[in-house]
Amino acid sequence: MFDTMTLTKALGAVCGSLLVFLLGSWAAETIYHGGGGHGEEKQQAYVIEVEGGDEVEEVEEEVDFAAVFETADAGKGERVFNKCRACHKLEDGANGTGPHLYGVVGREIAAVDGFGYSDTLSGKDQAWTPENLNGFLEAPREWAPGTTMGFAGLNKVEDRANLIAYLDSIGG
Q1: Residue 124 neighbours by CB under 8 Å, 6+ apart
Q2: Distance of alpha carbon 23 from alpha carbon 53, whole angstroms
Q3: What is the pLDDT of residues 71-125, one digit of tens each?
Q4: Read out DSSP for 48-70?
Q5: Cβ neighbours of residue 99 closer than 8 Å, sequence gap 6 or more
Q6: Start and end of every Cytochrome c domain (predicted)?
Q7: What homologous superfamily is domain 65-169 in, according to CATH?
Q8: In the chain, where are the structural domains located?
C-alpha cells in the first residue's frame, strides 16, 4: 500500500512546493524593491534643507559606579554570576577555564597560583578593587587588551555592581 513510489511522489511534491515558494518570494522581492541589489541606496529627488538638521545630539547618561555599588544587591549578583559559572568556580583553589573567584575582591590581579594568566593581566601591579572589576567586567578586551578571557562583558552597570557585591560576599 505504501511503497517507494508513493514516498518519492510525496517528497517531490514537498520539494516542488518549496521551489515555487522560493521563486514566488524572489519575484515579489524584485517587484517590490524595483530590482535593485542589496545595499543600494536610492537618492531622493528633492532634499529639503533644515536648519540644524546635521546636528545629532547624543545624550549619554553617565552613571556613577560608586553610587550604584553602594546600593548593590548580592542576591541579584548571584543570578548574574550564572553567566560566569561556565568558566569560573567559587571554591578556593578550584580553577576552571578561568581562575577561581573565591575572595577575588581586593586580591592582587593575576595572583592565583597555578593559573596561566595572559601577559596583559600578569603585567598589572594592581588589585581587583570594585572599580577595576567594574572596568574589566564592562569590556574585558578593552580594559586588558590581549586578555584570553572570551567574555564580551556586562552592559548594565547595575548587573556589574550586583555581581561585584556578590563576589565580595564570597570569601575574603
Answers
A1: 109, 110, 144
A2: 42
A3: 999 899 999 999 888 889 888 888 888 898 999 999 999 888 888 888 888 888 8
A4: ---TTTT------PPPPHHHHHH
A5: 88, 112, 115, 117
A6: 72-171
A7: Cytochrome c-like domain (1.10.760.10)
A8: 1-35, 65-169
